[in-house]
Predict the structure.
Amino acid sequence: MRRRTFLQSTTLLGLAATNQQKNFVPEPVIIATWKNEKGTKAGWDKIMQTGKALDGVEAGAWVPEADPNETTVGYGGYPDRDGHVTLDACIMDHLGNAGSVTFLEGIMHPISVARAVMEKTPHVMLSGAGALQFALEQGFKKENLLTEKSKKAWEEWKKVAKYEPKVNIERHDTIGLLALGKAGEIAGACSTSGMAFKMHGRVGDSPIIGGAVYCDDEVGGACATGLGEFVMKTLGSFLIVEFMRQGKSPQQACEDAIMRIVKRYKYQEFQVGYLAINKKGEYGAYAIQKGFNFTITKHGVTQVIESASYMS
Ligand code: ASP
């Protein structure tokens, strides 16, 4: 083949491959932190119905938010050290839109209030009394979220803890979710009642865009669970997405973000776990401590998978 013809045909082949990559639409998928089969299943069903990743992550968060036995999210969440259940949540779509609420009391589905902040206000974050006022204006109902079970646990805690907020390695079940919709678009969400028996007024990473959740439709998304102070100080989810943008796999990106915490702050007795997914639908997970797991629903099949960790 003459040189020019050869160059022309290889360029065409290259273009065809790039176009193929551009046209590649991955299968829908939804993943969530921890054992959240009902949540990912609800999210999956929603994606099958509306096609949208954003609807999927919101529906997925609804399940633990309404579950009184889930003591780290929504209704039944453990209160702060003064007995108030205060909620944090955020949501982000594939266009880079984001909404969040912090220190919200009395609303069972903070994830939907966060979505309303994103869709109906010019702001990203509403907090405390203002977030509640907005929620009520939007038609959300105010209710008591402190169950008898959580109240009892708080009263027991008060007897021994002397009002000292303590970091607990196991008690982290915040739900973080990532999904790819039918068009392959990414969305992410997070919802929590935060660290059990925290100081009144404490806000964690869960409503922080780039902390607990970050999505970029050119790259993928990431979400976090664990001691929010360290996720915030390293902007973990944003960091993971940027690592993936540099070409790292979701697994490698999660590992490097965990190592950022381990190296910078030296290892202490706390847990952080990350999940990530890229635009090909490949996913990864990594945590500081053993015991972190995550749930994935794909092709309608739900699986709980144990994550690797820094500490063995
Ligand atoms: N990340 C949450 C927070 O710090 C806690 C958790 O994941 O359980 O508020």
The chain has one domain: 28-311. The longest strand covers residues 98-104. The pocket of aspartic acid is lined by residues 72, 172-174, 192, 194-195, 204-206, 225-228 (CB under 6 Å). Residues 28-311 form a domain with the Glutamine Phosphoribosylpyrophosphate, subunit 1, domain 1 fold (CATH 3.60.20.30).
